[in-house]
């Protein structure tokens, strides 16, 4: 899959941008606070229908405008299609060749993206919910059907949480929800375990290529026992829910389940969360994101790779190794940087560079 052309109007500080993107590397470069990351965010928005920096629509719409538009011409190896995201202060909508998709999965089957941004280092150092979010994102990138699995489990959790806040608690209803929750959670854990296994097959080698050294591994730590069949896992989850019911009612919250699982990352058999340096943490996250991308490609998807602030996030050696690695992976990469030479010097691949200044783009 390749993004051939990108058109942006009234997105953040970008009044109107129209650029050709038919290249292996598309580089947006310039000084800080000029709009480079806004362009990358627009590409990400086109691919995911959301921002990686805010949940508030009004922050995406340029001051004085009533809506923001992002359009992309996509070639998937067979046909070209036009995807469009429209954001108003109160809504977001998407179309494929001018028509709304029947289901969201239809849209996401046409475009996906993997992003590395400076704040992603928190995946290594931060709370477990950030690592769970990464695993779920990787599972979705590999297969858009994961969205339905995750949404069902979240919906049941929210509905049960509403029941737990009532007084007195309705134990019969809680029992019914727990049975549904156990089934949904078992499916969720199986999908997470599967994607983590696929990620781990590539993670160590990719980390070594970026960092130059170090033995890295990952594993999914779950409240549920080992196994790859739904029913035994659902039974184990249901037993945990029944044991926890009195405490859940007392606290008015769900205390056990896959929503508390974690991804354990290790470097040289030590916890990356506790012992990784800042540079090591960046290398780990990049290896995670590239593992996500390659796992998706194994299933036939070809996501875009988006890399924000390449100049400042990696030292010279890691930058060189990363650009060389990206060149070998046969993908389309969008990069923001203050120095366009950091990409051009590291690859013989086709590069398109655009200078961004005060919301305008030239190149």
Provide a quick synopsis of the model.
Helices cover 45% and strands 23% of the residues. With 363 residues, it is an alpha/beta fold. The protein has helices at 36-48, 104-108, 122-125, 128-142, 146-164, 171-211, 230-251, 272-275, 278-298, 310-313, 316-328, 341-344; strands at 2-11, 14-20, 25-29, 67-75, 80-88, 92-96, 113-116, 216-221, 262-267, 270-271, 304-307, 333-337, 351-357, 360-362.
Describe the structure.
This protein is an alpha/beta fold and 363 residues long. It has 2 domains: 1-112 and 301-363, P-loop containing nucleotide triphosphate hydrolases (Rossmann fold), CATH 3.40.50.300; 124-300, RecF/RecN/SMC, N-terminal domain (Glutathione S-transferase Yfyf (Class Pi), Chain A, domain 2), CATH 1.20.1050.90. The protein is 45% helix and 23% strand. It has 12 helices and 14 strands. The protein has helices spanning 36-48, 104-108, 122-125, 128-142, 146-164, 171-211, 230-251, 272-275, 278-298, 310-313, 316-328, 341-344, and strands spanning 2-11, 14-20, 25-29, 67-75, 80-88, 92-96, 113-116, 216-221, 262-267, 270-271, 304-307, 333-337, 351-357, 360-362. The strands form 3 sheets. It has a 6-stranded mixed beta sheet with strand order 7-11-12-3-13-14, with helices on both faces. The chain has a 5-stranded antiparallel beta sheet with strand order 2-1-4-5-6, covered by helices on one side. The protein has a 3-stranded antiparallel beta sheet with strand order 8-9-10. Helix 5 packs across helix 6 and helix 6 packs across helix 7. The radius of gyration is 22 Å and the shape is globular. The model has no long low-confidence stretch (mean pLDDT 94).
């Amino acid at each position: 899959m390749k993004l051939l052309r990108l058109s942006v109007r009234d997105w953040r500080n970008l009044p109107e941008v129209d650029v050709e993107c038919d290249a292996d590397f598309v580089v947006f470069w310039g000084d800080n606070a000029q709009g480079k990351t806004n362009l990358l965010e627009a590409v990400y928005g086109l691919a995911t229908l959301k921002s990686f920096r805010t949940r508030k629509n009004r922050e995406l719409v340029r001051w004085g405008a009533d809506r923001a538009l992002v359009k992309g011409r996509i070639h998937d190896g067979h046909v070209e299609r036009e995807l469009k995201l429209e954001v108003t202060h109160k809504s977001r909508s998407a179309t494929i060749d001018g028509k709304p998709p029947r289901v969201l999965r239809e849209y996401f089957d046409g475009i996906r993206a993997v992003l590395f941004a400076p704040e992603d280092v928190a995946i290594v150092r931060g709370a477990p919910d950030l690592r769970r979010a990464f695993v779920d994102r990787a599972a979705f990138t590999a297969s858009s059907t994961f969205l339905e699995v995750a949404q069902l489990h979240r919906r049941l959790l929210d509905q049960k949480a509403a029941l737990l806040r009532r007084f007195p608690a309705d134990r019969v209803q809680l029992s019914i929800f727990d049975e549904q929750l156990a089934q949904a959670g078992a499916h969720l854990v199986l999908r997470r375990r599967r994607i983590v296994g696929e990620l781990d097959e590539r993670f160590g080698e990719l980390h070594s290529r970026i960092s130059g050294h170090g033995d890295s591994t990952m594993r999914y730590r779950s409240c549920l026992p080992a196994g790859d069949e739904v029913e035994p896992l659902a039974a184990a989850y249901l037993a945990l829910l029944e044991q926890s019911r009195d405490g859940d009612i007392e606290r008015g919250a769900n205390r056990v389940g896959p929503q508390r699982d974690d991804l354990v990352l290790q470097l040289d058999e030590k916890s990356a969360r506790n012992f990784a340096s800042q540079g090591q943490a960046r290398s780990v996250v990049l290896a995670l994101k590239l593992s996500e991308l390659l796992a998706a490609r194994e299933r036939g998807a070809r996501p875009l790779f988006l890399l924000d602030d390449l100049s400042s996030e990696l030292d010279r050696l890691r930058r060189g190794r990363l650009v060389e690695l990206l060149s070998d992976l046969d993908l389309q990469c969008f990069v923001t940087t203050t120095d366009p030479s950091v990409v051009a010097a590291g690859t013989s691949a086709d590069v398109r560079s655009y200078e961004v200044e005060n919301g305008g783009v030239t190149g």
